[in-house]
Design a protein that fits this description.
25% of the residues lie in helices and 33% in strands. It contains 8 helices and 19 strands. Helix 1 runs parallel beside helix 4. The protein folds into 2 domains: 155 residues, FAD/NAD(P)-binding domain; 164 residues, D-Amino Acid Oxidase, subunit A, domain 2 (D-Amino Acid Oxidase, Chain A, domain 2), CATH 3.30.9.10. The strands form 2 sheets. Strands 3, 4, 5, 6, 12, 13, 14, 15, 16 and 17 form a 10-stranded mixed sheet that branches.
């Protein structure tokens, strides 16, 4: 049986990024995706390439710095897919975060941007506040503008996967992992493809199955312990309301979470929620509670646009992404967003990815490929991902 260097399970942004990075480093790669490329979580995010301003509140400084660096790289490597966009933060007399706290956070964000021109921010004069069409002006104390970026998450994932294929990666869709037999010298990966059961021997396996990572571990022989995680659903609503010029960063009127109002294909995209799932059975769907939560926040800030019931009639579409977060007590909003790259001494040829962010997929990919190199040795590189355009 022929042995390849690497089998990757999962065709979301992390799987695509690892396939691209590993192929560029000279490794032979097979990627298995049980559905379509970028068809699940990587098509249902908030579509932002950003540093994560709110992560400063929980002290995730290294994550913010790295995310800002990756934002800069993606704007350079994929300018047709990643676009700089202004963000606006309105601060009211009832806001939990006052204007001095917001100014301090934006100053830190600017410093962490390391002289990136997008690190600049400003406080808009009051005469310009009404330019944000429909925004409630009563009680408004300040409006800050800063810059981040937006992308088409599915299109970006597919572009990265095309790059991986151009570099030699073999990519199979509608190919579901059935079992993995782990031995000291290799892994035999069984998968179903076109009604056939195929076995591929690999030197290493990367489990990048997103919310289904522990299902992949369940298929492993000999068995291996799993990380305890929570699956957290994030819902979005697309409203038939003309898009604003930029993105609004809003403090929820129900709790201390942050919700975005974003332009998307000429309409208004609203998100996201954080709803704990007891299980993931089929395609995730927005709940009534999530819909009314998001519409209630929108009505709070745009009261002239109608009641919640009237706004509900303007919903064009809903979609949900599912995050993998470490299991902890308390609100998921405050949990770390750093990815966990999990290995085990009992299964040294397998690495599992728990969590991850769209913005930092390149950093994740490089860390994974460093691990592959530690197992298999260095290969002859065929491309430099820091200069390779994503087309």
């Amino acid at each position: 049986m022929d042995t390849i260097d690497l089998v990757i399970i999962g065709g979301g942004i992390n799987g695509a990024g690892i396939a691209q990075c590993a192929s560029a480093a000279g490794y032979s790669v097979l990627l298995l995706e049980k559905g379509a490329i970028g068809g699940q979580t990587s098509a249902n995010s908030s579509k932002l390439i950003h540093g994560g301003l709110r992560y400063l509140e929980t002290g995730q400084i290294s994550l913010v710095r790295n995310s800002l660096s990756e934002r800069r790289a993606l704007l350079r490597l994929a300018p047709h897919l990643v676009k700089a966009v202004p963000f606006y933060i309105p601060v009211y007399d009832t806001s939990q975060r006052n204007q001095w706290a917001i100014r301090a956070g934006l100053t830190a964000y600017s410093v962490l941007s390391e002289l990136d021109p997008l690190g600049r921010f400003t406080s808009l004069p009051a005469v310009e506040w009404s330019n944000i069409a429909g925004l409630k002006l009563q009680g408004l104390k300040a409006v800050f503008r800063y810059w981040d970026a937006q992308t088409d998450d599915k299109a970006l994932t597919q572009a990265v996967m095309r790059s991986a294929q151009n570099l030699g990666a073999q990519v199979l869709t509608h190919a579901e992992c059935d079992a993995i037999v782990h031995t000291p010298d290799y892994c035999d990966v069984s998968y179903l493809h076109q009604d056939n059961l195929v076995i591929q021997r690999a030197s290493c396996v990367i489990n990048a199955a997103g919310p289904w990572v522990n299902d992949v571990i369940d298929s492993l022989a000999p068995p291996m312990a799993k990380e305890s995680v929570d699956l957290v659903q994030g819902s979005h609503l697309l409203l038939d309301i003309p898009a604003l010029e930029g993105i609004l960063y809003l403090e929820s009127c129900f709790d201390n979470r942050v919700v975005f109002v974003m332009p998307w294909k000429g309409k208004t995209l609203l998100g996201t929620t954080e709803t704990l799932l007891q299980e993931l059975d089929g395609k995730p769907e927005s709940t009534r509670e999530e819909i009314y939560y998001l519409l209630g926040i929108y009505k709070h800030y745009f009261p002239a646009l109608g009641s919640v019931e009237q706004l509900e009639g303007l919903i064009i579409d809903t979609f949900c992404g599912v995050r993998v977060l470490p299991k902890r007590d308390g609100s998921s909003f405050h949990r770390p967003r750093e990815i966990l790259l999990k290995t085990s001494v009992t299964h040294p040829r397998l690495m599992t990815l728990y969590g991850g962010k769209l913005t930092t997929y390149r950093t994740t990919s490089k860390e994974v490929v460093q691990w592959v190199e530690s197992k298999l040795g260095k290969r002859m590189s065929i491309a430099d991902l820091d200069t390779l355009a994503i087309l």
